User: Which sequence fits this backbone?
């Protein structure tokens, strides 16, 4: 049975004193009475006693001895003691040892006794709240330590993966680069002319090698960012210069599909950011737009400064992205299907890399799309580093 009222235990060998204290406090507290130390301990075993009040002089033991035992067995109860002047030194010693919260001199004044007991209950509540706060703090600290250990383990794993991927990339990229060089040489006619069938075969090999290089590059970029090993190297530059450089790389692919690519980037738009990473973001978004836009479509690139942020927008008239895919499109290895239902060729990493690089700058990327009408990607990154900001 639960007892919502605070509980007071009074221990005295004189029944008259027990009854008088019971009458004094019965309206405010649940009052338990015991005439011996043994009876008091039994009551405390079966009741949640908040405050215990003990007479110093009892036949079988001193009150200070009983409170010392109670402190050991029931440390949360607030302990009071009645004493006469003859026992005052022993009581003061018990207070100094922490066994007694406060003493009450005999004979007591009822009003003063009520104040003392009320303060004892306040002390109990304060101590209980302190324990709750400490328990909560300890639980949160343990959770934090667990999270830190898990994070450190994840970082070690990511760094190991980054080192492994870097080694694999080096072993794969070198022969692929050489292969690409041979393909370019063959297609240039330097080693002799190729017939149409041979040219097509070399172009397909070149396309496959380019795909593998892009896959390696995307994977490396993603692993570097996730492992915390990637850093920003900000410089000031004109965004238009980067846009033109990236467009010159992808213009051949756009021309093959007869796409109109409109660049609307004023020369005065300048930012302080990592130029290579901004170029990478733009390259991934632009190649994505070209890949998913049918022949004779259009791709628009715009850039401006808005509220201290570089706003970079790439819009296309492509196939669009279904609503159910839009929430996953920035995840790793998520690819789209074209209008015929076949899986598009791609690494499924380009947009994931974009998102990580944008966030590395402290920015954000958003998508707006309607199936069959095209997609618009909007990138916002700080145009300048904060004054006095740390170097990356």
Assistant:
């Amino acid at each position: 049975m639960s007892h919502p009222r605070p509980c007071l235990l009074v221990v005295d060998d004189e029944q008259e004193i027990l009854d008088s204290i019971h009458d004094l406090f019965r309206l405010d507290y649940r009052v338990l009475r015991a005439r011996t130390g043994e009876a008091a301990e039994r009551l405390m075993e079966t009741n949640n006693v908040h405050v215990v009040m003990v007479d110093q002089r009892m036949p079988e033991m001193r009150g200070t001895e009983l409170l010392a035992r109670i402190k050991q067995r029931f440390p949360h109860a607030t302990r009071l003691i009645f004493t006469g002047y003859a026992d005052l030194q022993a009581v003061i010693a018990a207070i100094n040892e922490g066994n007694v919260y406060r003493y009450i001199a005999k004979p007591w004044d009822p009003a003063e006794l009520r104040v003392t007991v009320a303060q004892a209950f306040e002390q109990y509540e304060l101590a209980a709240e302190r324990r709750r706060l400490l328990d909560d703090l300890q639980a949160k600290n343990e959770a934090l330590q667990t999270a830190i250990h898990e994070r450190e383990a994840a970082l070690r794993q990511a760094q190991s993966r980054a080192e492994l991927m870097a080694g694999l990339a080096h072993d794969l990229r070198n022969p692929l680069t050489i292969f690409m060089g041979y393909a370019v040489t063959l297609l240039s006619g330097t080693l002799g002319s190729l017939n149409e069938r041979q040219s097509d075969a070399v172009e397909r090999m070149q396309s496959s090698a380019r795909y593998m290089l892009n896959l390696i590059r995307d994977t490396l970029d993603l692993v570097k960012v996730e492992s915390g090993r990637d850093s920003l190297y900000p410089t000031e530059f004109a965004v238009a210069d980067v846009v033109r450089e990236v467009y010159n790389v992808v213009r051949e692919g756009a021309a093959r599909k007869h796409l109109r690519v409109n660049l609307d980037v004023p020369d005065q738009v300048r930012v302080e950011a990592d130029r290579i990473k901004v170029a990478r973001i733009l390259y991934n978004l632009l190649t994505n737009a070209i890949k998913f836009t049918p022949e004779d479509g259009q791709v628009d690139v715009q850039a401006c400064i808005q509220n201290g942020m570089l706003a970079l927008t790439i819009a296309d008239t492509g196939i669009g992205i279904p609503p159910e895919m839009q929430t996953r499109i920035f995840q790793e290895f998520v690819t789209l299907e074209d209008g015929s239902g076949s899986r598009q060729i791609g690494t499924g990493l380009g947009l994931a890399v974009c998102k990580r690089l944008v966030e590395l700058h402290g920015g954000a990327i958003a998508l707006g799309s309607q199936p069959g009408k095209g997609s618009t990607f909007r990138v916002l990154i700080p145009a300048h580093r904060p004054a006095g900001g740390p170097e990356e």
The chain has ten helices and twelve strands.
